[in-house]
Each structure stands twice: as structure tokens, then as C-alpha cells.
Amino acid sequence: MEKEYELIDNEERHQYEFHVEKYTPRIEYIKSKNGEIYLTHTEVPPQLGGKGIGSQLAEKALKDIEKQGLRLVPLCPFVAGYIHKHPEWKRIVLRGVHV
Known about the structure:
Layout: E1 8-10, E2 15-17, E3 26-31, E4 36-43, H1 53-68, E5 71-74, H2 77-85
Parallel strand pairs: 4-5
Antiparallel strand pairs: 1-2, 2-3, 3-4
């Protein structure tokens, strides 16, 4: 079973992140003034690859975005792919944006 990691919204660095050993897997974002959030880049260090950490990070970030009532624009291919595999998350994607 994969370990659960705590989601950190590092507003100073504009990214969601986990702290895993000495590594920081992250999803970078841009928040607009009108309630949109653009997820621009996901990075999981190669040493942590294949453990489901990226998917867990994406899911927890999407839950946080939904909780905040933001409209999502998934520019990052990883996040777009995650939403494609889990279409229930299309509910928070900005209307008119195709995933």
C-alpha cells in the first residue's frame, strides 16, 4: 500500500507539494484574480518515480482546488491525463476547456 503524504500549498512558491524524504514532488500553479487556477507543471523526482506519488499529488491538489471553489485550467499534461483517467474531476474544470 502506498504511503499517504500531506499536501502543502506553498503559496510563496506557487506550488502544491509533498515532502518525501529529501525530495519535493510538486505541481506548479498560477492563480488568477477571478477564481481560476492554472496547473502548469508537475514534477516528481526520478528517485520517487513509479510509486503513485504523482497521482496522489494530483488527486489531493484537485480536492483542494474544489474545496476553494476555484475553476481549473489543467495546462500540465500529467494533470490533464489524470483528469482523463478520472473524468469525475471534469466538474471543476473551467467551462469550455477541453481535457
